[in-house]
Design brief:
Blueprint lengths: L1 H11 L2 E2 L3 E3 L4 E7 L5 E6 L18 E3 L3 H13 L4 E7 L5 E6 L5 E6 L4
Parallel strand pairs: 5-8
Antiparallel strand pairs: 1-3, 2-3, 3-4, 6-7, 7-8
Length: about 120
């Protein structure tokens, strides 16, 4: 969880307060806030296990908007150079977005997206 917190702060300009802990349940969380008002909660509980490595319904991945295609490219390269796996190289999708996809430290997919003027 600490590594995920640092990842969100370093690469997506998130800010975080102190960790919340509920010792009776073994629950811990961080709320990561982003400049546009978005928020991501990172949580850990000992009774919740890792999901299976297969497609599933529900939460899929967060997407972070970039101001330009160049920003998508530069953020992607920064993540690659820092050792993160790029799952989807920068490209224009069928619905007109310019995007790339990277795995975070826990293997969650993160999308970097430019609206392409849509």
């Amino acid at each position: 969880m600490e590594e995920l917190r640092k990842f969100q702060i370093r690469y997506f300009e998130g800010t975080s307060r102190d960790k919340y802990t509920n010792p009776s349940k073994g629950f811990e969380s961080y709320l990561i806030h982003f400049g546009d008002g978005g928020c991501l909660e990172l949580m850990r509980r000992p009774d919740i296990r890792r999901k299976a490595d297969s497609p599933h319904m529900g939460y899929c991945h967060p997407a972070f908007t970039c101001a330009t295609q160049n920003e998508v490219n530069s953020r992607t390269e920064r993540l690659r150079n820092d050792g993160y796996r790029i799952v989807g190289e920068p490209r224009t999708t069928g619905d007109g977005y310019y995007e790339s996809v990277v795995e975070d430290p826990d293997g969650n997919l993160i999308e970097l997206v430019y609206d392409n003027g849509r």
